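Comment thread on ticket #2218

A.B. wrote:
> Attaching the input chain for the structure job we discussed in standup.
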Amino acid sequence: MERSQDTIVIGDPPKRSPPAGTITVLFVIHSLSGGGAERVIVHLVNHLDRRRFTPVLALGAAEGPYLDDLREDVPVHVLGARRARSAIPAVLAAVWRLRPDVVLATAGMNLAVAITRALYPRGTRAILREANSPSAFLNEVRRSSASRALLYRIAYRVLYRQADAVVCQSQFMVGNLARLGVPRSRLSCIYNPIDIARVRALAGAGAGAAFGPASRPRLVTVGRLAHQKGYDVLIRALGQVRRAHPQVSLRIFGDGEERERLERDVRRLGLGGTVELMGFHANPYPAIADADLFVSASRYEGFSNAIAEALACGTPVVATDCPSANREVLEEGVNGWLARGEDPGSLAETICRALEASGAVKRAEIRDRCESQFAAEHTLARYEALLARCAAASS
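C.D. wrote:
> Ran it. Output below, let me know if you need it in another format.
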């Protein structure tokens, strides 16, 4: 990270004052590792209108590939704790020292901001950006600990009411949080910003990750190798797809804690020549643009950046109808197809059906539709309006 002049450990004195008349926004996140929430935060801090806003970033740990993507004028404050509970004192100290107009937290740091909200200086407002479907997350936690799931349910019901606003990534999520007791008046649905021009430029930047010309049909997916993403289900589905399409190939871009297990699944099912685990690639977009289908087998999502970026490349999508924005984003036979979640047979059948129909799909229309729905400038304008509303309520 070549930004030491702007990297501040909490406890150091501030190195610069925000320009007069701007709204100071403190963004709080655990790190800038290669995930969807991290990419959204980087986009926001980089693109907020500097005539109106002064963004400041607080990281649990100064690590992750997206650090290098930050604009040079964004101060980075290091909290020294990646987990929300450990970060609570540092978050509170940062808020009191920096005295931002608005604090915006996401992912694990939502909890730290919600817990400390009542202790903020008069005039500081708090926004939580929910990263996943709460009901699905609670079900996932319940698999290992019913008591822990109950604590999280109470946290949603009690602590999220402390926030001045909560950003949801889908209408599905809005309903989810409302049922958990968060007032609807505080809930805003804002889809994630997709830098469509960047995605398309990278897709055309080189063929390093693209498929070879003889490899058809070609499937691709991108994401963290974690239970949530359902790659175990996808690999089992590929065994069935191969019976109808013996030459099918799947590339999985991403890394994570499930890699060894997934490699064992590939070997056990005899899919070594069919499924490739590619690891993390900074630019998987040539392969996405080159694929016949992008496939998402997630068990739950908030808003899938990977699906939206595939659509930005004009690539049709097969996804599970899981708790997520997928049903809001995909229209059957137009830009994608939905399969039942947790069901390898349904996913395999849907992939085969999509492969039969993909030749009739108009990729230019998929790209245009994506631009009208998810262009970053539309999303940025909605975030700026929400930040301005919250700041005005404090004055």
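A.B. wrote:
> Thanks. Noting for the ticket: The chain has two domains: 4-193+375-393, 196-373.
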